[in-house]
């Protein structure tokens, strides 16, 4: 059974964040039908976090577009590099969604996908310099993302900082 | 594509991007100036779209990969529109920053599109 109003943070009226949007679902405050005392929720993406989400979305679009072209036109030239392009595109798309989505599971998905990107850009970036013949064809991560102004290298770091600072909180 | 027009477009997108970023970091919510600058970037993209459609018939076909070019072109057309839509919904200063990021991304994309148009292996 839901306990009565538990903490001052979950007052039914005001949302503490200064965004002009109405609460999206019953999750914003802990007074919804599904609330128990001490329920853990993710804060809504606000402030500079929204810019992060947009940059992620643009990168996801770029990676998706590139891999679409590579796979439809010249897949057999470099199956490894191009499959990797496709995987990275999917990971960027999932990471973008995971940054925004509210559930606790999505928070973990965000960590997993962003860690994967970090690993990907470091491993593929290093390999593309040490063993250039493996990656004769460009991917988002070649030479640490030089084709994308090193955004693929910087973005996971910013993403991790943002996730660490915006942990799910007790509502 | 037409070289000089692409360069004008890149310059406009860069200026609009920097202007929106500065406005955003100066804590301004999206206003007529920043949205107008983004609209101008979008307008030039629509012109570019028409130019790219007509150019091959006028004896100026793309030398690089056609599919890549059109993926860029369509993505570019969507980007400022999406950013402006965002700015109309979320009236915070970060939306102004988002407009700036979108305009700067357009500058890069048009640069790449022009490269693809003039050079066969890019």
Indicate the CATH class of chain B. Mainly Alpha
Shape of chain B: elongated
Global mean pLDDT of chain A: 77
Unreliable segments of 5+ consecutive residues of chain B:
none
Low-confidence stretches of chain A: 1-35
- Element string of chain A (H = helix, E = strand): EHHHHE
Largest protein-protein interface: A-B, 21 and 21 residues
Order of strands in the sheet with the most strands of chain A? Answer: 1-2
Radius of gyration computed on alpha carbons of chain A: 20 Å
Percent range for helical residues of chain A?
A: 40-55%
Number of strands of chain A: 2
Blueprint (SSEs and pairs):
The complex is a heterodimer of chains A (171) and B (122).
Chain A: E1 40-41, H1 48-74, H2 79-100, H3 104-130, H4 151-165, E2 169-170
Antiparallel strand pairs in A: 1-2
Helix pairs in contact in A: 1-2, 1-4, 2-3, 3-4
Chain B: H1 3-25, H2 32-54, H3 66-89, H4 93-118
Short account of what is shown:
The complex is a heterodimer of chains A (171) and B (122). Chain A is mostly helical.
Task: Give descriptors for this structure.
heterodimer; A: 171 residues; mainly alpha; two-stranded antiparallel sheet; 4 helices; 2 strands; B: 122 residues; Four Helix Bundle (Hemerythrin (Met), subunit A)
What does this structure look like?
The complex is a heterodimer of chains A (171) and B (122). With 171 residues, chain A is mainly α. In chain A, 53% of the residues lie in helices and 2% in strands. Chain A has a two-stranded antiparallel sheet. Chain A is elongated. The two termini of chain A are 16 Å apart. The model of chain A is unreliable at 1-35 (pLDDT under 50). Chain B is mainly α and 122 residues long. Helices cover 79% and strands 0% of the residues of chain B. Chain B contains 4 helices and no strands. In chain B, helix 1 runs antiparallel to helix 2, helix 1 (3-25) packs antiparallel against helix 4 (93-118) and helix 2 runs parallel beside helix 4 (93-118). Chain B is elongated and about 45 Å long. The two termini of chain B are 15 Å apart. The A-B interface holds A 18-21, 46-48, 50-51, 54-55, 58, 61-62, 65-66, 68-69, 72-73, 149 and B 65, 67-68, 71-72, 75, 79, 83, 86, 89-92, 94-95, 97-98, 101-102, 105, 108.
């Amino acid at each position: 059974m839901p306990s009565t109003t538990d903490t001052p943070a979950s007052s039914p009226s005001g949302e503490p964040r200064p965004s002009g949007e109405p609460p999206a679902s019953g999750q914003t405050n802990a007074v919804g039908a599904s609330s128990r005392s001490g329920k853990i929720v993710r804060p809504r993406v606000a402030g500079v976090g929204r810019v992060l989400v947009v940059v992620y979305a643009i990168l996801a679009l770029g990676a998706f577009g590139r891999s679409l072209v590579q796979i439809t036109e010249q897949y057999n030239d470099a199956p490894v590099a191009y499959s990797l392009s496709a995987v990275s595109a999917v990971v960027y798309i999932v990471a973008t969604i995971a940054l925004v989505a509210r559930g606790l599971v999505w928070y973990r998905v965000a960590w997993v996908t962003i860690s994967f990107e970090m690993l990907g850009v470091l491993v593929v970036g290093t390999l593309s310099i040490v063993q250039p013949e493996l990656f004769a064809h460009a991917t988002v991560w070649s030479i640490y993302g030089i084709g994308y102004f090193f955004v693929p290298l910087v973005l996971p770091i910013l993403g991790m900082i943002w996730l660490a600072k915006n942990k799910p909180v007790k509502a | 594509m037409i070289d000089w027009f692409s360069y004008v477009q890149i310059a406009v997108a860069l200026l609009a991007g920097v202007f929106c970023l500065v406005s955003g970091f100066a804590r301004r919510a999206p206003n007529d100036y920043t949205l107008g600058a983004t609209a101008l970037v979008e307008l030039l993209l629509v012109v570019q779209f028409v130019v790219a459609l007509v150019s091959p018939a006028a004896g100026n076909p793309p030398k690089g990969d056609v599919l890549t070019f059109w993926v860029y072109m369509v993505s570019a057309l969507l980007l400022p529109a999406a950013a402006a839509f965002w700015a109309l919904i979320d009236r915070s200063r970060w939306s102004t920053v988002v407009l700036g990021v979108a305009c700067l991304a357009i500058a890069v994309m048009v640069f790449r599109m022009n490269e693809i148009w003039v050079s066969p292996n890019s």
